[in-house]
Design goal:
The chain is of the alpha+beta class. It has twelve helices and 14 strands. The strands form two sheets. Strands 1, 2, 3, 4, 5, 6, 7, 8 and 9 form a nine-stranded antiparallel β-sheet that branches. A five-stranded antiparallel β-sheet has the order 10-11-12-14-13. The longest helix is centred in the C-terminal third of the chain and has 36 residues. The radius of gyration is 35 Å and the shape is flat.
Length: 385
Amino acid sequence: MFRTLFSPPIFIPKVFTSTIFVPKSVIPKAVIQKIKLLSILLLFVTVAFGQKAKDKPVGLLPQSFSGWHIEPRSVKTTPDPAAADPTDAPVLKEYGFAGLESATYARSGRTMQVKAARFNDATGAFGAFTYYVQPQMQVEKIGDQGASSNSRILFFKGNLLVDVAVEHLSAMSGADLRALADALPRPKDNTGKLPALPGNLPSQSLLRNSSRYILGPEAMSRLGGLIPAQLIDFSKGPELAIGRYRTSQGEASVTLISYPTPQIARERMEAMQAAPLSGGPFYFKRSGPYVVAVSGNIPGDEAQSLLASVNYDADVTLLQPTKPKPVEDRAGFIVALVLLCVIAVLGALVFGFVFGGIRVLANRFFPNRVFSRTESAEIIRLNLK
């Protein structure tokens, strides 16, 4: 029995190894040579694809990094967001959760628990990072952005959110985790683009690790948003960025909402201003498709200063994946070129036969009147002397 082309060891299919006694005179030599050539080509293709499948990395997490080696039996994968976080599974769905891979790494008697959650794009991974990060965490330069607290390190890279738990942090933990981040795959298409909306939040007096990026009502309600989800109307496809700010009277919140069009933003802001909101006073501003709301313990002049620092600037940023770039296909180009030549030749033949047929019919039914007139055959001469 032979295995598939992609599973080593490689066996030649039985059709080429079965013993069949056929007189040589029955099969021409040319056919025998073609069968041998086909067998050799099939063998080379099988070896090539088998080696390619063998070299292809499996899973998200690397086998080793910076002296840490994965324990094979500890690797687990699941597409269920409830297995990743039973409490916040609906939030993970809003951010586009696509799967989880977890494993245990060991080095010199120490262990490290690593969980890598994959999202549809970097927007989801960034949003989930802002959802889980805590204000008391220290900012770390790991991956695209990271934070740490005691024995837990949280960072994201591209469309991957990684949660690491170590026995105890050491001076080399940061270098080890940066090596882990470098070993993680990064998406090569537009799924790796980060959202631009959080960058429009005012930077002055922003509390550390307080900015949140929100895509749905579940995350909005669980993060304690002051504007109800029905007023925001997530059916319109908005993006939200929320930040906490230090003021002279305490703390305030800035809610930045981006809608697809300025018309929707105007309609939603009017609805928010007309509704009774708790946690006020509220100060609103619209800039293009942006709706900015400031609320909390903040004087009016400071609220106006925060509102004035948020302005919409048209900038095209690809956040959603587009069609992949076509792979160069030389064989397809040659086939298309041959087809174009065949079509051009056939077109010329058809037009030639049509023109010739019209000429023959005209000479038959209208002799010496259309094409074969005597005067048309004369040669124009110039008697220059």
